[in-house]
Design goal:
This protein is about 15% helix and about 35% strand. The two termini are about 35 Å apart. The chain is an alpha+beta fold. Strands 1, 2, 3, 4, 5, 6, 7, 10, 11, 13 and 16 form an 11-stranded mixed beta sheet that branches. It is built from 7 helices and 18 strands. The protein has 2 domains: about 70 residues, no CATH class; about 200 residues, Fumarylacetoacetate hydrolase, domain 2, CATH 3.90.850.
């Protein structure tokens, strides 16, 4: 099932919906349905059967008549893991980390799947990182691997947009990862019951040129490993968003380096999920 946060172009009011091949079915068709994606995820055991039954109805909107927003517009936490594909470690010309390498992206960095990316006033070292993203489905701490698997609600395409010079100003990556608009993800959440997250082709294209191409089977630490590790330190909650790492092919590793410029179009595609596409605009 594909679940989205959207607004109809006619009224602009955000709401929840199911995306089918025929269009979008608003969850407001269900009396007293949750109004936000975090609420829906937290209450999913109570709503799953009713939402699944709704998929057989005619769409309330055609897809071309809506704007798709970030599926979770304001996550409680956005975490990203670094150096999680072997080819990315190799191109970074540094030693592979002996432990999982984590950073946070701030909630104000969230962007719609087709929203514009800001080229910052303070830097031109703007880079892309196409990634599989997963959304946490339940409150969990000290997870076993089996509990971690059950704790994932679903999956999205994401771009861990990074301002490289700010990333390496200090040993902490948070500022360089948290500029406004630099966490686009979506275009919807594909629920975990219909997808194996560890066998998905992933590609990033810039202006139609393929820059990254890999498969999630090459994750060094897979999605379940990530939850097990993170949950030793913090309580993960419904709606938390996790960026799972990027494969090789980033602009900063090319010689010469190839930074994103105003007007560039960055597209991230993941098999079984779909794609997001963002144009770069000056801040």
């Amino acid at each position: 099932m594909r679940l989205a946060t959207f607004s109809a172009k006619a009224d602009g009011r955000p709401r929840l919906g199911i995306v089918t091949d025929a269009g979008v079915i608003a969850l407001s068709e269900l009396p007293d349905a949750p109004a936000t994606m975090i609420d829906l995820i937290a209450e999913w055991p109570d709503w799953q059967a009713a939402v699944e039954a709704l998929t057989y109805r005619a769409p309330t909107h055609q897809l071309e008549d809506v704007i798709l927003h970030a599926p979770v517009p304001r996550p409680g936490k956005i975490m990203g893991i670094g150096l999680n594909y072997a080819d990315h470690v190799a191109e970074a010309t540094i030693e592979a980390p002996k432990e999982q390498l984590w950073f946070s992206k701030q909630a104000t960095s969230v962007n719609d799947p087709y929203g514009a990316l800001q080229l910052p006033e303070v830097s031109s070292a703007l880079d892309y990182e196409g990634e599989l993203v997963f959304v946490v489905g339940r409150r969990i701490r000290h997870a076993t691997r089996e509990e971690a698997k059950a704790a994932i609600f679903g999956f999205c395409c994401g771009n861990d947009v990074t301002v490289r010079d700010w990333q390496f100003k200090t040993s902490q990556f948070t500022l360089g990862k948290s500029f406004d608009t630099h966490a686009p993800f979506g275009p919807w959440i594909v629920t975990s019951d219909v997808l194996d997250p560890h066998a998905l082709g992933i590609r990033t294209l810039v202006n139609g040129e393929q820059r990254q191409a890999s498969n999630t089977r090459y994750l060094i630490y897979d999605c379940y490993d990530q939850i097990v590790h993170l949950s030793q330190a913090m309580t993960l909650e419904p709606g938390d968003v996790i960026f799972t790492g990027t494969p090789g092919g980033i602009g900063s590793a090319m010689r010469p380096q190839r930074w994103l410029a105003a007007g560039d179009v960055v597209r991230v595609e993941i098999d079984g999920i779909g794609m997001i596409e963002n144009v770069v605009r000056p801040e």
